[in-house]
Amino acid sequence: MKHMISFSKRVKEIPPYLFASIDQIKQDEIKKGRKLISLGIGDPDLPTPTFIIEKLYEAARKPENHHYPSYWGQSLFRKAIANWYLKRFAVTLDHEKEVMALIGSKEGIAHLPLAFINPGDHVLVPDPGYPVYSVATRFAGGRPLFFKLRPENDFLPDFGELKKLVQKNKKTKLIFLNYPNNPTSAIASVGFFKELVSFAQKYGIVVCHDNAYSEIYFAGEKFNGEKPPSFLEVPGAKDIGCEFHSLSKTFNMTGWRVGFIVGNAKILQGLSLIKTNMDSGVFNACQEAGAAALENSEPFCTELRAIYQRRRDILVPALKEIGLKVQIPKATFYLWTKIPTKTKSYDFVLNLIKKHGIIATPGSGFGRAGEGFVRFTICTNEETLKQVAEILKNSV
């Protein structure tokens, strides 16, 4: 009998990861000898701060740091997280029960539905949104219920739409949200989160808020005069939800894979049951370096925001000059750009690569509601962005 190797049904149902698709096009062009400018993936080009690297070096020399790490994370790291939340958001956390280290926030987001979603359960997922939310739901046997983030509503969900979805689908157990938002760069207010908590309490839904971009916001563009808030700032939020965070974007540490989840102790306990059976903890030396990062985040973050703001102010006018519609982002390092109506976002990106050597990400990769948009990142230096601006100007 011929031995057949076939993928599982869950794998077959997953659409190709949009970044992998764009990367293949990129590699094909490079093989042809093209020099490309990448404004596609949100991977900071800036180096990890020296003080963090020095702490890693010091911690890596300790023999005790080379054993298996705790699944929950070192007490030192979890205390640093709790202290940072208190200082940054005025949120009090029990570092022993309400804080857990993750191998990057993506790991926790991907694993969490396995702890709470049964086959046939529903999960509210933003459209457009980070693809992992829907993929993790499907892996757990759940069904994503997509709700649209519309420009006319500042890319915030419509609670009327959410209520209709929940009332129609009684097995709705969880909602994923992400503000400041990837890909739209939208920001949510404390008032919005109050409404979210009320909604979740009424319908018995677990809230999973992805807050990875909270520290990348811009002077003079703050939402209601405030820094981007934490969902957990709202009274009652900790009773029904959790929040993910990562050192990747805040400290240019994407390759380090250091993140964390905070919030409801039972939610964290559920995730820990998955982690203990499926993966491991974060390298202890990285946790020590992560603690140092959180304890000394300023003035580094102030300088980082200034750099991104200068970059933003180079690319936004260039996109507007060629007739594209883009709102000046108040946070993140993304520009969510409306393209001409009759053009498909994937075709627009393909044309941009082949004609101009510039890589962006098609909005359709983030969901059906992303069609008609393209996401640009500003994760490259000012000189390169000026070059992009010139290329785009000459393409009109």
Label this structure with key terms.
4-stranded antiparallel β-sheet, Aspartate Aminotransferase, domain 1, Aspartate Aminotransferase, domain 2
Give a summary of the structure in a few sentences:
By secondary structure, the protein is α/β, with parallel strands linked by helices. The protein folds into two domains: 9-47 and 300-395, Aspartate Aminotransferase, domain 1 (Alpha-Beta Complex); 50-295, Type I PLP-dependent aspartate aminotransferase-like (Major domain) (Aspartate Aminotransferase, domain 2).
Tell me what you see in this structure:
With 396 residues, the chain is an alpha/beta fold. It folds into 2 domains: 135 residues, Aspartate Aminotransferase, domain 1; 246 residues, Type I PLP-dependent aspartate aminotransferase-like (Major domain) (Aspartate Aminotransferase, domain 2, 3-Layer(aba) Sandwich). Helix content is 43%, strand content 14%. The protein has 15 helices and 13 strands. The strands form 3 sheets. Strands 2-8-7-6-5-3-4 form a 7-stranded mixed sheet, sandwiched between helices. β6, α9 and β7 form a beta-alpha-beta unit. α13 packs parallel to α15. The longest helix has 22 residues. The termini are far apart. The mean pLDDT is 93.
